[in-house]
Amino acid sequence: MASNQEQALKVAELLLKTKAVRLQPNKPFTWASGWKSPIYCDNRVTLSFPDVRTHIRQAYAQLILDAYGKPDVIAGVATGGIAQGALVAQELGLPFIYVRAAAKGHGMENLIEGAYEPGQKVVVIEDLISTGGSSLKAVEALRQGGLVVKGLLATFTYGFSQADQGFQEAGCPFETITDYATLIDVAVKTNYINDTDLTTLHEWRVNPSTWNQ
């Protein structure tokens, strides 16, 4: 069994290899929030690679057992956490539900899709944590539905203090398989980026909301 740090390094390598994470210091991306960024992360790309998909699914499953023990149900956060959550639920032999970004506008008008019972223990699966807002909205929806949220797991986090504070205030522990610092370390060691790129990435990380404005 790989250690958490070995797993973090391996998954960071896989994210770069599959281009689920792209680093473009000289041609910044624009996030939905309007922030300019030298990094863009779309972990759904990993689903297209069976071997990578399997590795990440198993990493999630082991981290859940190590951090929280086996829950009663797995919940994915729409949309990025749905496919990954279903794979993790299958790996652990558990029921799966998912949380919509907004309640359905017709029929049962569900916010939570799937079969569950109040009082069940749930671990939430997300693909990425940036500010943590959408993740914590899903956590609150599950709690409102009567579920006991043991914690949340994601593939990757940028490590923003806003997210750390939000999860702390919500009383929801979270874990990630890998993170920004680990990914940058791997990018340097594999010559994916040079020293100038590294300086730019560090500068962005200090104040991402105003970088390159």
Largest sheet, in brief, is: 6 strands, mixed
Q: What would you report as the Rg, rounded to the nearest angstrom?
A: 17 Å
User: Strands of the largest sheet, in order across it?
Assistant: 7-6-5-8-9-10
Low-confidence stretches: none
CATH class: Alpha Beta
- C-alpha geometry: globular
Distance separating the two termini:
44 Å
Give your account of this protein's structure:
The protein is an alpha/beta fold. The chain has one domain: Rossmann fold. It has 7 helices and 10 strands. The strands form 3 sheets. The protein has a 6-stranded mixed beta sheet with strand order 7-6-5-8-9-10, sandwiched between helices. It has a two-stranded antiparallel ribbon with strand order 1-4. Strand 5, helix 3 and strand 6 form a beta-alpha-beta unit. It starts with a helix and ends in a 7-residue tail after the last helix. The mean pLDDT is 93.
Which terms summarize this structure?
213 residues, alpha/beta, Rossmann fold
Offer a concise description of the structure.
This protein is of the alpha/beta class. The protein contains seven helices and ten strands. Helix content is 42%, strand content 22%.
Question: How is the secondary structure organized here?
Answer:
Blueprint: H1 4-17, E1 21-23, E2 29-30, E3 36-37, E4 39-41, H2 50-68, E5 73-77, H3 80-92, E6 96-99, E7 112-113, E8 121-129, H4 133-144, E9 148-157, H5 161-170, E10 174-179, H6 180-189, H7 195-206
Helix pairs in contact: 1-2, 1-6, 2-3
